[in-house]
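Justification of resources, computational component.

The compute hours requested in this renewal are based largely on the per-chain cost of generating structure records like the one below. Each record pairs the submitted sequence with a full structure-token output. That output is archived, and it is also reused by downstream analysis tasks.
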Amino acid sequence: MLKDYVALTKPSIIRLNAIAAFGGFWVASKWDNLHWLLLLYMLIGSALTMASACVINNYWDRELDKKMERTRNRALPTNRLKPTNVLIYGIVLGIIGLAILFILVNPLSGWLGLLGFFVYVVIYTMWLKRSSTWSTSIGGISGAMPPVIGYCAVTNDVDAGAWILFALLFLWQPAHFWSLAIRRVEEYRAAGFPLLPVVKGIPRTKLQMLPYIVLLIPTGILMFTYGYVGYTYLIISLLGGVLWLYHTLTGVRAKDDNKWARTNFFISINYLMVVFLVMIADTNGAIG
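The structure output for this chain reads:
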């Protein structure tokens, strides 16, 4: 049962977002005067808030999850856990997480956490996921909050650095998620989710990935231009972005959509991981 409760929080998503939050914190700190206790509070608070949103997402989608092979064996669709208990669990996680952000970090980080929670749970899960192809793009607002929360935990200000970090995660998400959606398009169709590849088709989805990746590339340049990172980050982020863009372009003529989407998904995950790790290492030109 404990394993099921942990799984409801989607640990893999929390790990990836924790790295992004840590990256935002580190960029704002610039290797100087690191407040380790503040970092710990920020990571715990944001992780619990994200966990809460994921748990409530699982609660709200429990009936639709029964229709998808990828999700039908989760704890709620198989009745291993009671929905009421899961909802209470999610609410408690959210209250603790937001309290930590508001009280032990700063109010701005708390409001950003609450915004991310609201967009993911209310706008994305309860509304757009069931009614519009815009769910992925608009839902990306919530996924872009972790590095901004980390950054603002230090600066207590939404300045250029916060907006650039927001843009990095916001622009990364659609092409990343649509790669998964293409592989699972029939499952999403059966479950009734109006995702872009379900409604508009796979060819249109591949084309719509391109503007996001094209716009993603300049974020690396802006991070460098504003002095947050050095040449190492600039070069690696540009090379990674161009590689991802090139592979996405090959999708236009790809004959095996599943194979292409699997590789594109793999590239997207590693792009984000590498970019943030290098960002942490090369903050303020530390290795640039």
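The chain has two domains: 1-167, 175-288. The mean pLDDT is 93.
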